[in-house]
Amino acid sequence: MPSCVLAYSGGLDTSVILGWLQDEGYEVHAVYVDLGQPCEDREATLAKARACGAKSARGVDAREELCRDFAFPVLQWQAKYEGIYLLGTSIARPLISKVCLQVAREVGATAYAHGATGKGNDQCRFQLAAEALDPAIELIAPWRMEKFRKLFPGRREMIAYCEQKKIPVKASVAKPYSSDENCLHISYEAGRLEDLSVNGVELVDFGMTVSPTQAPDKVEKVTIGFAAGVPVSVNGKRLGALEAVTELNKIGGRNGVGRIDVVENRFVGMKSRGVYEAPGMTVLYAAHQLVEQLTADRDLLHLRDRLAPEVAEMVYYGFWYTAKMDALLAFIREAQRHVSGEVSLNLYKGNIMVNSRQSPQSLYDEGVASMEGGGSYNQSDAEGFLRIQGLPVRVQARVNPRTY
Known about the structure:
By secondary structure, this protein is an alpha/beta fold. Helices cover 44% and strands 19% of the residues. The protein has helices at 12-23, 42-51, 63-76, 88-107, 122-133, 146-151, 155-165, 200-203, 241-254, 279-295, 298-317, 323-335, 366-369, 381-399, and strands spanning 3-7, 27-34, 56-61, 111-113, 138-140, 178-181, 186-189, 220-227, 230-234, 237-238, 259-265, 271-277, 341-348, 351-358. The protein has a 5-stranded parallel β-sheet with strand order 3-2-1-4-5, with helices on both faces. A 5-stranded antiparallel β-sheet has the order 10-9-8-13-14, with helices on one face. Strands 6-7-12-11 form a 4-stranded antiparallel β-sheet, with no helix packed on it.
């Protein structure tokens, strides 16, 4: 009997896939990768997998690794897909594949299955990561198989299958939208959100954030410390990666920070509409940028900013485990060596405003920048600087005069 590892959530889709894989003759090892998604009882979820015939079922807590080794390097890049999306789901998928393949190696499984659809981005992220880590692994994506879709054309058939197999699931035929949550964010898509005339922010029952209109009618101050571009403290308290994100989710969430509604371009070629909330990471992006303003060299920062959209694309598409990404991550570690300091922010009804910033690595020199008389900047030096800078345009103007 061939052996397969299944990325298992305990929900309707992966519960059906667990049963279907066994029908197809696979011995199934269920892996629940804990990234901070809601679960009433993780042990009960794993027990259900075993009761439904899984050869083994285990949970792996990868929350700290997700924040430390995946989200924070992307934060250092200030990477946002299409200028707005903080990549909370995209970042998580390569890690899920990594954990599942580690389990596959332990149990001797030769196949890896997931529940991503053939229309979405997640199938790309799962598969590209898996093939980069183990090119010999067999990838099983049931939703891309016609025989699976014929059996389960809709949720009604999936629920009926679970009833027949006595697989306990909490599911309804009608859903206004679907959601995916981890400790970084929650994404909402599909269902009624596919209708662009629907106000997504009003439709969604947000889980991390209050509405800005319902947020406290007073400013809340938060102070965040960074070392080499990585968050290390919140309000003066040293925190690990997961602790920092969790604390800022609470602070940002109660102030209505971090909601977006976007139509984005999927890797597979279609446009899709998503509503996202990421309070903690939104606050961290703002704070990190402010520390960079003090500490990062101009030309280095501008180079990073030119490359950041490409990094965001690579994360969004699923090219995490590649030579190019390895090189880019090495670059950003070096580029962020001096990005250390502390930022104080004021949060108010969905807004983030700077209060103060300081750094022992600050390149800001008040004596140079001052508009007052004196100081260490000699304005006469600008004459020669601009004569040299203007040389090419003066030559061009004589050869090719412009009309004006």
